[in-house]
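fwd from M.: "can u put these together and see what the complex looks like"

so here's what she sent:
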Amino acid sequence: MTDASSLPLYPHRHLLGIRDLSPADIELLLDRADRAVAISRQSEKKTSTLRGRTQINLFYEASTRTQSSFELAGKRLGADVMNMSVASSSVKKGETLIDTAMTLNAMRPDILIIRHQSAGAAALLAQKVGCSVVNAGDGAHEHPTQALLDALTIRRAKGPLSKLIVAICGDILHSRVARSNIMLLNALGAQVRVVAPSTLLPSGIEKMGVIVSRSMAEGLKGADVVMMLRLQRERMEGAFVPSVREYFRYFGLDAEKLKAAKEGALVMHPGPMNRGVEIASEIADGPQSVIQEQVEMGVAVRMAVMEALLDPRRNEGRSA
Amino acid sequence: MSTTVFERARIVDPSRGIDEVGTVIVEGRKIVAAGKAALNQGVPAGATVVDCAGKAVIPGLIDARVFIGEPGGEHRETIASASVAAAAGGVTSIVMMPDTDPVIDNVALVEFVLRTARDTAIVNIFPAAAITKGLAGREMTEFGLLREAGAVAFTDGRHTISSALVMRRALTYARDFGGVIAHETQDGDLASAGVMNEGLYASWLGLAGIPREAESIPLERDLALARLTRGAYHAAKISTEMAAQAVTRAKADQANVTAGVAIHNLSLNENDVGEYRTFFRLTPPLRAEEDRLAMIEAVKDGTIDIIVSSHDPQDVDTKRLPFADAAAGAIGLETLLGAALRLYHNGDLPLLRLIETLSTAPAKLFGLPGGSLKPGAPADLAVVDLDEPWIVSESGIRSRSKNTCFEGARLQGKVLQTLVAGRTVFSA
């Protein structure tokens, strides 16, 4: 970016999960992202930090938002971006993840962005390739750039996270967004609450550094941030909740339930939203919603992450 | 007839409750003497004498749960390659699971296994036949004819029979032919998409969990049916305290019930999964440390009768995948004794009890020869240095598949020589 040499060197080669990051690592990425926001808001959005570098997006799960966000981030940094569309590739013909990884690796990319339906897929890929790997979501495990963009959105609106109460509501069980957020928010000292019916809570949730609540009124009380999760119906093995109607009645965010939160509390959603299932339209489009900001911060965070991972000072250090 | 004398050995023979220094004399295919008394018998002329000072002689292990790829999956393991691995691990007899392709559910397949074993294997191979045709859980196989052909037990291998009616009839019918019904229990509905033990660790990894109840609910059903039918039932691989308690209760009710545990569930726990290590994806899954300790207690108090390797060869294609997509199973023939001896070395189990669960008890349970060093018994035995440390390395593995949970593990206790029917089939 303009001048990144004043920033500390980011110590990791991959971004596989929030678990691997220290609070300082997280703050560093957020600081970098703040600068990326400024660039994205200029009319000249293109920089040359990653000029000549190759970025491959390998998405095993359909994703409009995340894939285009990574693509745009790469392009704004000047990288050559290639999207591997899994639907029309050899993966459909039964090629394994590792074989695909080896093939792509032979094309000598500098960074691989992977989304996969299986937990641990990004880590497996990272073991087999010579470039940096960014986890863009692996099963129900982690989605680190989502947690970072959420943190950036919150920090820019509310200041340091350490004094804030954040309520994460909905399908915690299947959510990689929830896991990454729980870790990140705890690392930065926020108080984390989760609100969900018990069938959508993972085993051992009470030991995950959160306060568990089964009612929105209780869980949202005094919260600075309300984070809604998508009710991932396509992932459900069985009926975790009896009906959409009942779910919305007890766990969908509407104006009435939002009143329990602090005045001016942020309403967030990682998207894509099911309007009328987990969130009422009036709230999603209302004054407290920062859902559009989250999308903007997404591009900035991904720029920051890729720039940090491919910091040219790292190579200088190596050759010296 | 050749004679071999093993002198000054620590003789561990659970069939007679013996753990003493003495001499073992093998003549031809049989043991003619083993014990303190044999010390003074002198050495017959022309005998080979092996000085076993500081070493132990144990009856060869009888591994009652071994999956082999022949027929149908010879790239993973053949009967011959499994037998070589077994011999190196001090295992002299294998009960082979029917999960082959085609399934061992008819007389021709039992005969194929026995014939192939006779021609290619260096240890004893005893086929177990399927309880239901094609392991599909519906129609019973021909228990009578299969027994006559040489099937030593009935099991649906990795599969759990979901129908209580089928299980009831199998237990009832098998009783007439003296066949034990050995069953792994995991309720498919409750386990659902689960791939590891349910709990905090699985939750952080984002992996679907298998609750303990998935094992104990069908097990409780089976135990109730064993009480009802008075059939011989073997809970093949239990992994949880609640399952052990269920077995204890059934035994107290005089039901004809026994239980086994895989060595993995005695030596490892869910934390060993680490960062999605697929070699540690097993069925039943590695459980919490409390469960592991409960399994040791259950072996100690006799609730669990036998320890098995549950040797399950998987190749690279089925293991080099994301955790949830990888096949379950790990090999174990070569490490069974070494891993089990950890329980002896750290004081969890006395040696005599340990060897009993690995040899004498499975012989008795499935009506197999071996498991004993008493005079007249087949000379199936292993000479072991109980204290010698060694490190498991992939390159040293004889099995055709390398999916071991003990890669790099430090084990104490090494097999020096293995005899099957008096013939040396392995020597270090």
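replying to her w this: Chain A has a mean pLDDT of 92.
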